[in-house]
Amino acid sequence: MTVLLISILTGCLLVQGLFWLAARKLGLSPEMGIGKSDDLPAISVLIAARNEAQHLAVFLPKVLAQDYPSFEVVVANDASTDGSALLLDSLEKDYGHLRVLNFPHKKGEGKKIVLQEALRMARNEWIVLTDADCRPCSNRWLRGLAQHFKPGTDLVMGYGPYAYGQGWIKDFIRFEAFMTAVLYGTFQRFGMPYMAVGRNLAIRRDCLAVAQESEAYGSSPFGDDDLAVQAIARADNTALQFHPEAWVESVSKESFSAYIMQKRRHLSVSRFYKVGHQVVLAILGAAQALFYPVLVGLLPGNILTCAFFFVLRTLIFAPACLARMQQLGLGDLKQKVFFLDFQFSLYYWWISLRLLSLKKLSWR
């Protein structure tokens, strides 16, 4: 049994070590600053909103106030009953580049249907997706994405952190979003783009249309971001934009149950990922999930061996993770990194159980 546990720990250490060494070597830092040129293509920003009046009142003006030469914002009001229609009507009168599409009756589950309608109404080649409960971290967000709009590039993936909040739940939500960004950012650098966050994603109009017609995209009411990436992303047609001025910050869920529901919707589309992506992500997830339980199981009678594995993993994991945390706005959580890392291992156990027992989900 001891030999088996040591073998598992060795495998976990090897997988995680290779990943974090790669994450540290490749880095996620911006390759260049955000320029001031006005020679940029026109953009259509698409937002699907359902009962988001409170967030729209605060965040939509920040989207509309972007320092960008030519853009429109198309908001699809998805059968809201909270006064969103009145708010959007008022904002539409104040902002000439805001266009509101009202859908008084829900046409189906999820937001994909209204996003498809919004895409048909969009006027520009480049589409930027974000959410109603998000705010750009600067008025140069669109410029940051647009500097990657080059021949041969079809998709630009941005970073979407969660807003600061007090309590371990919000700490973990922020850390999980950070880890997700490290994963898809590192994989993009490796030439294996597999997902992005729909609150900060730019994609060519014709590519998004192709993605929306794919079999996987139509198989689930959720995953408009992930499945679009799965449908059209390649090693040579994607770019990464993690400059702080190009971040889009999202409001943290107020309860753990609301966060779990959100993650369940995300997990429900992972079965549509390419097989290779599923395999690699499963190996990484298993390495994260197994390390601590196996270490504890080996502890009786093998204290020095366990100390060796823990120290070795720490020497590989901590420098790379702490550097990325500082870079991606989580410097205040660095002292909690080991506690959050342990929670993240438990989170992977939860993922495994949820993938085996997913039930019907709802957007709201």
In short:
Helix content is 51%, strand content 12%.
Features of this protein?
single chain; 364 residues; alpha/beta; Spore Coat Polysaccharide Biosynthesis Protein SpsA, Chain A; 2 domains; seven-stranded mixed sheet; two-stranded antiparallel sheet; 9 strands
Distance between the termini: 47 Å
Structural class: alpha/beta
Which band does the percent of strand residues land in? 5-15%
Count of spatially separate domains: 2
- Poorly predicted regions are none
Task: Give the spatial strand order of the biggest sheet.
Answer: 3-2-1-4-7-6-8
The radius of gyration computed from the alpha-carbon positions, rounded to a whole number of angstroms, is 21 Å
The biggest sheet amounts to: 7 strands, mixed
Helix content: 40-55%
* Number of H- or I-type helical stretches: 12
Mean pLDDT: 88
| Known CATH architecture of the largest domain | Alpha-Beta Complex
Q: What is the CATH C-level name of the largest domain?
A: Alpha Beta
What is the third-level CATH name, the topology of the largest domain?
A: Spore Coat Polysaccharide Biosynthesis Protein SpsA, Chain A
Query: What's the CATH superfamily of the largest domain, by name?
Result: Spore Coat Polysaccharide Biosynthesis Protein SpsA, Chain A
What is the total tally of β strands? 9
Bulk shape: elongated
What is the H/E order? HEHEHEHEEHEHEHHEEHHHH
